[in-house]
Amino acid sequence: MPKVVSIHSYRGGTGKSNFTANLATVAALQGNRVGIVDTDVPSPGIHNLFSLDPENTNKTLNNFLWGESPIEEAAYDVSANIGLTNGQIFLVPSSVKADDIARILKDGYNVGSLHDGFRKLVKALKLDYLFIDTHPGLSKETFLSIAISHVLILILRPDKQDYQGTAVTVDIAKQLKVRKMLLAINKVLASMNPDALRQKVEEAYDLPVAGIFPLSEDVVRLASEGIFCLRNPDHPVTDEFRKVAHHIMS
Amino acid sequence: MADQHDLQSLTSSIQAVASPFRSYLNDLHQKYQSLNEGAVATYIPELALANPNWFGISVVSVDGQVFEVGDCSKLFTMESISKPFVYGMALEDRGQEYVWTKVGVEPTGEALNSIVLDEKTNRPYNPMVNPGAIATTDLIKGQGGTERLKRILDRFRGYTGREHDINVPVLLSEKAAGIRNRANAYLMLSLGMVNDRIEETLDLYFQQIAILVNARDLAVMAATLANGGVNPITKEQAIDERYVRDVITVMLTCGMYDSGGEWIYRVGIPATSGVGGGLIAVVPGKIGIGVFSPPLDEKGHSVRGIKVCEDLSRDFGLHLFNCAQPKYDLNAWIEGDDSIEGW
Fold first, then answer.
1. Chain B touched by A175 (CB under 8 Å)
2. How far apart are CA A121 and CA A75, in angstroms?
3. Which of A29, A173, B212, B331 has the smallest number of Cβ neighbours within 10 A?
4. Which positions ≥6 away from B237 have C-beta within 8 Å?
5. Does ipTM top 0.90?
6. B205 catalytic residue (yes or no)
7. Do A140 and B11 lie within an 8 Å CB cutoff?
8. Residue B48: CATH number of its domain
9. pTM of structure
10. The domain spanning residue A193 has which CATH number?
């Protein structure tokens, strides 16, 4: 049965897109067909990590939401772009054109059709996993992606604002009866004790922490121009992504 | 607390959108959108303007979850769908015994506009055929036409939870084309079966069938009956629970007119339809169904509406007399149970 995984954070800048891209890649490398939908229509970005040039993406998620084209026509096979050796990754980008962003913000869209699109994509491309990269904060789209997910991953940084926002999101996710919720802590300073941090966060939210990621210069250097896990298969950060993937697949 | 209520209503609407049951309805909508059978009603010009592609399906559960696919906000005139609801009002106004002396509950097997009364009692056969609907409209209490109309509109507000308007061009056209209805009314007047404020009652009859609703309204109305007369969203008691059974019964026995036998055999859900393209169906204790699609079959029922009800009845075992294990479990599909292969 295909699995839908949403990656969300209450605030921006938590590294959501990077996290999604790496996790999807680790999942694909195990021989899976993986889809990624960038539902961050106000501020799309994940296409950069897969070297997908907006000039060559004539159809996007926006066109589907406006009823102009089937969602599978907005799905691009990006496996070759990143040199994927096993599995396949299809990316549905959101439009980066200012006009398109303005139109979707002004007119909105039917959140039901987004759900229909996810289902259609999973069927048409015979996906094993669908990853949904979301816009930070809470919105109808966020609520929907939480409600339909088999696994929800909440990314937070070890600071007070993220702790509070994550608590709100966890409450709502529980009301939406999410099936499985995991936490991932990103941008952890080298001076912090990861085990103590894990214990503290797990106790605070009563949820498992699936991975702890350091504020790493290696990652920062490669951010936004390629998939870290592919370039650094033996790096501890890559191992941490494998652990999170294992949580999802189990 | 207001915040809590807002969050609940938002999460509930999102859960409905995310529910596998809505996905099922979406597939059903796609399946029948391309069905191009039937023709829109043309006996009055206003109905002939309907776009044959309009198609909305709404289902409301007795716990108030709303599922909508397609054109569910598009307004259309209720036409005959008003009849069982006005019958329910007549029961409340006059009581079952008195209403019984004025209108029967026997299916006629004849078209809804036939001019026929029971020879022994002079009663119209049932509240769903036009003479029966005129006779039940006659029973609605109130000082004058305006107050009686206001009472009817208030009642529909109770059922749907929102204010309703009347489509005046449809009302005037129906009135101009309603020669047989007038004949029925005067026949009953000559037999002393209706009050002599007959023109007022006829106006009220033409007004009630021109009330504007949408597919979602129909589903909420049906869910209100399915929920013992309590609107599952507003929690308002729209009809005395003693009479809910009577209303649903006449829908089951007479609601589909001269195709009633086949309907009960194939679908087995109390229902009625209007020539505006609306179809309403009540699954007691479970859900209300509202479908809007203007192309009609030769009996005057929405073609897509019938198909939708057939599929729902078969797949979820909603036939009243169904004893077999249904293909799908309705509650599990609505609640998004993990056992559902929604993807």
1. yes
2. 8
3. B331
4. B158, B229, B230, B231
5. no
6. yes
7. no
8. 3.40.710.10
9. 0.88
10. 3.40.50.300
